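Structure request: Glycosyl hydrolase family 13 catalytic domain-containing protein, Timema podura.
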Amino acid sequence: MNVSESGMMSLTLPRVGIDPNCPSPVNEFIADEEAASICPLLTPSPPTSFDHPLSLINPSPGMAYEQEISPSSTDNMEIPTRSALNGNNMVGYSVLNQEILDQSNNEGSVPTLNATSSVHSVMESSSSSSSVLQEPTVCAQLLSSHHYHHLTKASNIDPFTCQESGGKPPLSGLQLAVTKSTSDFCFLSWNWPVIRKLSFWGVVSLLMACACVVVALIAQLAQSDSSNFDGIGDLRGLLSRVQYLDSLGVQAVRLNPIFPSKQYPESYDTPTSLTGINPHLGTEQDFTAFVEAMHKHNMSIVLDLPIRPYFKQLLTAAEKDKQKEAQNKIIIASKKIHLTRKNGSDQDNFTENLINSLIIPPLVDITRAQDKMEDTISNTLRYWLRRGVDGFYIKGLEYFTDDPDFASQIRNWKKIVNSFSAGLDDERILMCSVSVLDTVNESGDSNTLRAVLNNIDLIDIHLDLFGNGTESVKKQVDKVLQGILYTKPGYPWVHWNFGSVDTQRLSTHLISPNGSLGAILFHMMLPGTPSIFYGDEIGLKDIQDSQGERKDISHLHQLAPMHWIRSDRAFGFTPTEFHPWLPFSDSWSYIEAGKQSALKDIARLRDVTPPVYMNGVYKDGENLPNCEIRTLHPDIIVMERMYPRRNSYVVVSNFGSETQVRDLSSLYYGGEVVADLRGRVGQYVTFQTLLLYPGESIVVKLDK
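Returned structure:
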C-alpha cells in the first residue's frame, strides 16, 4: 500500500488470470507509472481532449477508490471484508456509449476502445469487497434504461465489455451498486420545515373555519322562527305556518294541552301544571310571538284545559297525605299499647284509648279538593288571559257536575273571562263538551242547567260519519237542532267536529282520496262553528302499526306528523336527518291546491252570507233552526241552509266509494256553484242529472 503526495491511498490488488511474467499495463492517459499505480481506475480516464459520448455531463477530476484498512495492514494484504463509505469522496462509474453497445450486439464483436491493452488488476469475488462512492454528476450517467450488472474480461480483447445477460469468466458476477444523487430527487431539496409549518397552520385554519360555520348555523337557528328539530311539533314550527292557516280562512286555532307533563308528548293530557309551557313546545317568548302573529292575522287562540286528570293527581296526593297521617296514628297507637301493658293499666281504659287513637279521617277531603279546584282554575284563567289567550276548552268538566258549588264556579269563571273582553269584536269564550249539558240535564238540577246554558259559549259535539252512513249523521244533527240549545237565542253556539285529538281520522275510514275534503265542505255548511282537525284537509291518516310496536300508545295514533310540504321526504315537518316522535302516516297529499281553496271559498261564504253564518231564525221569541237535512241514499246526503228574503244554499255530498248520478229536480231546479272540488265555481248547474264522484261535495246557491 502506498500513499501519494496528494494524500490519496493506493491499494495493490492480486492479479487474477494474468500471466505473472507480463508487466503491468500502464494507462496511456496517465503521465507516468506512479500515477498509474496510485489511481487504479476500473475504466481508463480520458484525456482532456477526449470527446466522450456523455460529455454533456462533466465528471469531477481526481476520482479515487478509497479503502479502509487497519494499521497493521501491508501492501500485499487481502481485500478487507468491509469498507467505510465517505459521503464526501465518492467514486463515479462511467458507462459505455449506447452506440457502442448497440454495435456490439448487432455485429457480434466488441469494438476496440482507445484506452489500454490490459488491466492492472481485477476482482475475483462476486460480492464487492469495498463500498463505492459516487459523484452526483457521474451518478446521473448511470441512470439509464440498462442495468449494468457484470463486467467481463475476454481473452482476446483488452478493454472491458458491459454485458446485460451475464458475463464471462474470469470476472462474471461482479455486482456494481449505484446510488442516485440527491439532485435527482427534487423533493429532497424542498424546504421541509417551512412546508410542515404551512401544512399545520393550514389544517388548523380549516378546523377553525368549520367551527365558525357550525357556530354561525347554531346562532342562526336560535334566532330563526323554525322548529328546534326534535321531531315534536312546537310553537315555533306552528308560527312558521301562520300564513298557511290564514290561506285556508281559519279564524281560530285551538291548541291541545301545551303544559308541562311527566312524559311529553305521550302524556300530554296529564299536566303537572296549568300555567306553564312544556319545554318540548318552546318558551314563554315563543308563545308570546305566536299569539302576536295570530292576532296580526285576525285569528284567535283557544287553549284546552284538561282539568280532570290534573285534579285527579291532586286528589291522589291528598289521599297519600291522609294515608300517611293514618299510618302515623297507628304507630302512635302501637306505642300506647306497649306502654299500657308495661304499666299494667286498666284493660277497659286501654281499649277506649286505643279506639280513640285509631280513628282515621276520610281518605279524600272532598271539600278541600273542591276549594283547590276553584282557586286553581280561576288563577289559570287569569294567567292565560293576561298572555293574550282568547278562550278555553275546559275538558273533563262533566266529572265535576255533582259538586254543590258547580253552578257558582261556572258563573265566576265566566265573570273572569268577561273582565278581559273588550266588546263583541274582542270577546273571550268558554267551551265544554256536550257531555256536560247531557249530565246536568239528566240530573234535573235546573240551577246548574241554567248556569251552563247562560255562561258557556260553545258546546262541542262530535259527528260520527261511520255509525250508520248518512242516516246516522242526519239523526245526530236533528237531535241537536231539536234540542235545548235552540230554545232560546242566547244559548250556547254549537261547535261541530268530525274528528279531534280524541278520535280516529276521517281518511282512516274513508276510501275515496277526496273523502275527508268532501266531508269538510259538508261540515262547514252546518249551523254553528265547524272545527277541522289538522291534516284532515289533506287526507292525513292514522299511523300504521301492523306489528304492534306502538300498541302502548294506540290512543295517540291519530296524532301523526303533519305533511306541510308534499315534495319533501320529511314533508317539511322536520329535516330529513331527524326522525319525528311518531312515524309519518299515509295521506292523500296529492290533493291540488285548487281543491284546498274550496275551504277558503266556504270560509268566505260563512262571513258574508246570513243563511250560512246565522245559527237559526229568531221568530216569535223562539230560535228556529235554519237547516234541513235529507238523505237519498246510504251514501248521499243533502243539506239546505235558508234565511228569510235570501238565497238558499244547498250542499250535496257523496260519502260512498262509488260514483253516483242523482235526479234532485223534485227538490231543486238549479243554481250557481260556489264551492266544489272540480273547479266549477261560478258555473250554473241543474239538479236533474247531478254527477258526484266518491268523496265529492258541491255547494250551490239556489235560484230564488
